[in-house]
Structures are given as structure tokens and as C-alpha cells.
Amino acid sequence: MNPSAAKETAATRLRLRITSAAESIVRSGHPWLFADSIHESNRDGQPGELAVIYDRKDRFLAVGLFDPDSPIRVRILHAGKPQTIDPAWWRARLEKTLAGRRDLFDAQTTGFRLIHGESDGWPGLVLDRYGTTLVLKIYTAAWLPRLDEILALLQEKIPCERIVLRLSRNLQPSAEKKFQALDGQILSGSTPDARVIFLENGIRFEADVLRGQKTGFFLDQRENRAEVGKLSRGKKVLNAFSFSGGFSVYAARGGAISVTDLDISAHALESAKRNFALNQNFPGVAACHHEIVQADAFAWLEKSAAKFDLVVLDPPSLARRAAEREGAIRADEKLNSLGIARLARDGILVAGSCSAHVPAAEFFDAVRRAAKKSGRRFSELKTLRHPPDHPVTFKEAEYLKVIYLKFRN
N or C terminus of the chain with fewer C-beta within 10 Å? Predict the structure, then answer.
């Protein structure tokens, strides 16, 4: 990637010195440098330029992408011995990232993550594949001045029909004003006529790549959807916070008698109907009774008297910030108590959390407390974390956790 994109030269390159505590954090491999950790800079920095970080003895420490408007002021690209960040460096990094996915999936899975942000060495950037469509999601303005170089690199290395740009909500106003970049913009190729269809373990799903949540689908739950499919034969299944019905289609293909999709969003439930329709070629899906319930999941679970053999609880993040952590844990315990109350004899609870501010151990303990308070005998089947195309290399990147409990009465 051409360093001229950020207008830096060797003579005028942005130079930063940081606190001793921050030095230790950067040396440990953490990819974020916060604004309050910087105590000296040679000049003001611009979005996307390379910031070179030096230690107290004026030795090279790291280099990263500068974002003057973010609390995360520098997203670290490289730490250790100095390296030249040039087009060859970027090309090598992309090749290494793609090589890590090369043997993960066969032709029956065409929806997966190609670049997982910081944990793949691309801080604040995600790239998902849905069949022949690539979706580039950006979480920091530092990448916006470099869009042309990113686009050229992706087109060189990844054959595709189109590339779609998605922007985090907080970036959208400034991205349009300063860089003429829009959420849902087609960077290359044609605009899709409808939602993009892709395969996951042979199942067809739609992804709303232009306006849908995240990049259009929750690819990170692939392994848990497959597990639910294995557990569903002969069962009545409730999929709470169902979104577009991913767990439900797997359950139906796996032999579920009935599946109930519960979500507050009519838009999401319409997508769930379409995903069922896409998979009528599977005998299990064609035979499964599919019910749609539009309601607040907490309220419905509390009022309903219905019983199910398998309950999936996969809510959106209940803690958007660290200050909400304790409240989220209490909400998790309450939600799972409500879910357990809906379980028939010998039922299975599948409880998930995507709240990065709630550690896995605390979430699992909250679910176990709910199980113990139910007074029912239960055993723990398994816990699952991040799938291999969503690697995790630092604490703040840990968000996904799912626990499976089997109740004996």
C-alpha cells in the first residue's frame, strides 16, 4: 500500500512517544494505543497516516495507523524491529491472512470471514465473503484515505463479482463528508438485484450485504448452528432472538418436528421465512412446522406456557460498554431462567453471549446459576468459543461464548 496515501515522508513522518505503561502494553503485542498514552508528538497527525512510536531511549517500538478522532489513537500494524510499510509489505500480509483460511472450508461453505481485524493484523477492518461478494467493514477512519489501495489489493488477490463497503455507525457522517464514502457503497462490480445467497454446510442463506446488521449475516455462529442441527432430531425447538432464522433452518434439516422463531423485528422474521423457503429441498426443512412469533423475547418467555425440547437463546449484546457489565450479567441470568422454564423434560438449553464486556467465565457462571436455581438436575454438554475464521489474539477481542446444558427432569 502506497504510503503517499497518508502524505507522510521520512522527514515529516509522525513520531510519537508514549508513557512507560503504554510501552509495556505495546511490547506485549496489544494492537491499540489510546490517546491518553501519548505524551509527545512532533506534529498533528492526519487520519490514516503511519505513526511511528518510539520508546524512552528513542528506539523504534512500533508503527500503526493514526486516527486523530478516535480514543484508540493508533492501531498497531507492526511492533519489534523496524520494517518498511510499503506495497510489498501489505501484499505479504494479505497473502498470509488468506493462507490461514485456505483449508478451513469446502465448496459447501461459501460464507466465511477472510480478515478478522486486529487478530489478523488488520486493525479496525473486517472482510467477509458471501459467495462471489466481498463485504469490507471498516471501524476506524484510519482506513478511509487508503480505500483505493485496499480495493486494488483485494481485487488482485481475491477473485470476486463485487466488493461492498460497510461502515460502523459512528463513522458514517464523517466518512461521507470528508471521504465521500457511504455505508452500502459498491466499491467494485454491480449492485446486487436482491440479497446475496451463499452456502453454509450446504444450507442456503441470504445476506443483506447492503443494509443488514454487521456485514449482512452472523457468520461467527456457524459452529453452534451445526451443533444445534445435530441435537434437534425429533424435537420441538425455540429459537429466541432468532434474527434471520439460522439456528432454525439447521434444526429443521436435522429433523426437528417444529421450530419457533421468536424476534421483535418483523424484518428479521421475514428473512427467516425466506431462508426456510430457500431450503425446501431438504426433507427435514420441508416437513418441519415453522412458526413465527413477533414479540419481545424477555416478555414472551415470561408469559408463555409453551414447552420446548431445545431452547436457543442468542441475544444481541447486553453490554455495549464496560459500565453495563454487571447489569448484563444479571440480565443473562434472568433470561436463562426464563428459557429453562420453557424446557420440557430432558430438554437442552443452548445459551450464547456476544458481549465483549462480559468475560466467558462470568457468563457461563450466570447460566449455571440460573440452572441451579431452577431446582432441576442438569449436566453440562460443552462450551464453544470463536470459530477458526474469527481468531482472537487479545483480550478485548473475546466476545463469543456459548454453553450447552442438558436437563434431566
Answer: C
β partners of residue 134 = 129, 163
Q: What angle do CA 310, 313, 318 make, to 5 degrees?
A: 170
Residue 7 CA to its chain's centroid (Å)? 32
- Please, what sign has the CA dihedral across residues 343, 407, 398, 244? negative
Same-domain pairing of 180 and 224: no
pLDDT tens digits, 32-87: 999 999 999 999 999 999 999 999 899 999 999 999 999 999 999 999 999 999 99
Q: How confident is the model at residue 128 (pLDDT cuts 50, 70, 90)?
A: very high
Residue 162, pLDDT > 70, answer yes
Q: Are residues 296 and 238 in the same domain?
A: yes
8 A C-beta contact, residue 164 and residue 129: no
pLDDT at residue 369 greater than cutoff 60: yes
367 in the same domain as 298: yes
How far apart are the C-alpha atoms of 205 and 207, rounded to whole Å?
7
How many C-beta neighbours within 10 Å does residue 159 have? 8
Q: What is the tens place of the pLDDT at every residue in 237-265?
A: 999 999 999 999 999 999 999 999 999 99
Q: Domain for residue 279, yes or no?
A: yes
- Measured CA to CA, the distance from residue 77 to residue 55 in angstroms comes to 16
User: Looking at the structure, do residues 242 and 373 belong to the same domain, yes or no?
Assistant: yes
Interatomic CA distance for residues 178 and 109, integer angstroms: 38
**In a shared domain, residues 111 and 175:** yes
Assess whether 189 and 95 both reside in one domain: yes
Cβ count near 4 (within 10 Å): 9
Q: Identify the domain containing residue 391 by its residue range.
A: 218-407
Domain match, 8 and 144 both: no
Q: Tell me if 391 is assigned to some domain.
A: yes
What is residue 197's three-state secondary structure?
Answer: strand
Cα–Cα distance, 54 to 24 (Å, whole number): 12
**247 and 307 share one domain:** yes
Which one-letter DSSP state was computed for residue 229?
H
* 19 φψ region: left (φ > 0), alpha (ψ -120 to 50), beta (else): beta
Residue 196, Cβ density class (10 Å: 0-12 exposed, 13-18 middle, ≥19 buried): buried
